Amino acid sequence: MKIVLHICCGICAAGVVQTLQDEGHEVIGFFYNPNIHPQEEYAKRLEVARTVSDKLDFPLNEAPYAPDEWLKATAAMQNEPEGGRRCEICYRIRLQETYRYLIKCGADAFTTTLTVSPHKPAAIVNTAGREICGDTFLQRDFKKKEGFKKAMQQARDWDLYRQDYCGCLYSIRDK
Ligand code: SF4
């Protein structure tokens, strides 16, 4: 299957892309993360995603960095804790754009690296994906079968930059 994979960062991609490729899928990476703050951090994470794309030999499509809409959409939820309503909106915004990209490139399915993180509940991410397009969203929980551990090992082996907060300015405040 040709799958558009939303990539939240290169480290998560290092674990997930390999899994999908081993299953015989063709992966098209899609980097869309307007949540990441500040821009210097965005650039670092994008650079790691490019490195992983080179190492695992899959195309990486990069959407422009456009944080303003994201900030507007989440402004009323800035005091939510990580894992709360703000995060649900954040997943949805990124998955919606990934779905738009699927339509554009004619892939069979779309999914996301987000569920590889132990901090991202697969049920909430998968519900958002299903509600955007149940026919084409590939529901997964990539943290299963030691997915997160494998991604971390790959990051160490390749000496990749590892961020210490989720991404948005609120997660910097709360870390
Ligand atoms: S904590 Fe992470 S998932 Fe939640 S809103 Fe911020 S960047 Fe998005």
Fourth CATH level, the homologous superfamily: HUPs
Outline type: globular
Strand order of the largest sheet: 3-2-1-4
Low-confidence sequence ranges: none
Q: Average pLDDT across residues?
A: 97
Coarse structural class: alpha/beta
Second CATH tier, the architecture: 3-Layer(aba) Sandwich
Order of helix and strand elements from N to C terminus: EHEHEHHEHHH
Helix content: 40-55%
The CATH class is Alpha Beta
Strand-residue proportion: 5-15%
Cα separation of the termini: 38 Å
Q: Within the CATH hierarchy, at the fold level, what is the topology?
A: Rossmann fold
Bound molecules: iron/sulfur cluster
Number of domains: 1
So how many helices? 7
Main sheet?
Answer: 4 strands, parallel
Radius of gyration: 15 Å
Q: List how many beta strands DSSP finds.
A: 4
Give a verbal description of the structure.
By secondary structure, this protein is α/β, with parallel strands linked by helices. It has one domain: Rossmann fold. It is built from 7 helices and 4 strands. A 4-stranded parallel β-sheet has the order 3-2-1-4, sandwiched between helices. The longest helix has 21 residues, at 85-105. The radius of gyration is 15 Å and the shape is globular. The protein starts with a strand and ends with a helix. The mean pLDDT is 97.
Write the layout of secondary structure elements.
Elements (H helix, E strand, L loop, with lengths): L1 E5 L3 H13 L3 E6 L7 H18 L3 E3 L4 H8 L10 H21 L3 E4 L9 H12 L13 H12 L10 H6 L1
Parallel strand pairs: 1-2, 1-4, 2-3
Iron/sulfur cluster binds next to helix 4 and helix 7.
